[in-house]
Amino acid sequence: MSQPSLRHFIAEDDLTRDEFIALIENAIELKASWKRGEIRDTLRNRTMAMIFEKASTRTRTSFEAGMVQLGGHALNLTPTDSQLGRGEPIEDTSRVLSEMVDVAMLRTHSHETIEHFASVSSIPVINGLTDKLHPCQLLADMQTFFEVRGNIAGATIAWLGAGNTNMCNSFINTAKLLDFKLNIACPPDLAPDDALLGACASNAELIDDVTAACENVDVVVTDVWASMGQEEETMQLNSLLSPYQVNDQIMSCAGKDAIFMHCLPAHRGEEVTASVIDGPQSVVWQEAGNRLHAQKALLEMLVA
Ligand code: CP
Ligand code: NVA
User: Fold this and answer.
1) Do domains 12-134+291-303 and 137-287 have the same CATH topology?
2) Residue 148: CB partners within 8 Å, gap ≥ 6?
3) I need a surface site. Which of 129, 137, 158, 300 has the fewest CB within 10 A?
4) Is 168 designated active site?
């Protein structure tokens, strides 16, 4: 089925602030409606193709379940069992999928791959994580904050960990879009890209001292120290990042009302202690569950 107006979701700012907030509001409503047992079929007879170049638990499950819950269907193409693994160009794959399905979701190593795919696509393309950004995670994270604390404008989030990764980049983009403050505590060698930080300077800043970065913040957030694709650098990253672990001392600096977020998967004892991720300030299960509802709202916005 052709789309009346083609939209992609490759970066957070593919949505305006108003659209982002409207999407979160719809996600909260879709969650309540699903929990009431209501049947919804806004994507009846629609198909999503998913391409995963890397592992996934949450992204794959939430998109597949989400399509079913909206009356549609999702299919999974891994490079090893599709012609992508035998060298078919990504642009050709994109053109073919545009003839057959209604929306495509890609998790790729390189951000350029999804951009190439989208450049020839006539169906909406969704970024399910690249080396540069993870915007679907930010939809769920923002939904979670709105549920727990209300509008995020004016709030402060502390990011502890590598500053040059997909998750930190997505938090920087979203800080600007939704107007919250992001304190980034990271090793100097793993600082965010200057251009990105410069473009978001009113909302995101580097704070050298970990304790100062966390003082009285609303949220403390972190991510694995070695992202997918960085396995060979694990030892070096672990040693650079060990001073940035989120532990009880950090959470007490943040204050008792602060919440802890993590996109998962988590490594207890590395970027976060078990006492924090399994403790009373952690909202990680609600956050993970919101992937389902936020992405259903995204699918309705792009496809229905
Ligand atoms: N947070 C996240 O994207 O999880 P998966 O890698 O399991 O999809
Ligand atoms: N930064 C992590 C996020 C996993 C959801 C990675 O890219 O592996």
Assistant:
1) yes
2) 259, 283, 286
3) 300
4) no
Fold of 137-287: Rossmann fold (3.40.50)
Which pLDDT band, with edges at 50, 70 and 90, does 4 fall under?
low
CATH fold group of domain 12-134+291-303: Rossmann fold (3.40.50)
Identify the DSSP state of 15: S
Q: Is 137 a catalytic residue?
A: yes
Closest approach atom of ligand 1 to CA 54? 6
pLDDT level of residue 2 (50, 70, 90 thresholds):
very low
- Residue 263 annotated to the active site: yes
Rounded Cα distance between 266 and 237, Å, is 15
Domain ranges of the chain: 12-134+291-303, 137-287
Q: What is the pTM of this model?
A: 0.97
**Rounded to the nearest whole angstrom, what is the distance from the C-alpha of residue 265 to the centroid of ligand 1?**
7
Query: How far apart (Å, rounded) are the C-alpha atoms in residues 265 and 19?
Result: 28
C-alpha 174: how far from chain center: 10
Nearest-atom number in ligand 2 for the CA of 137 is: 5
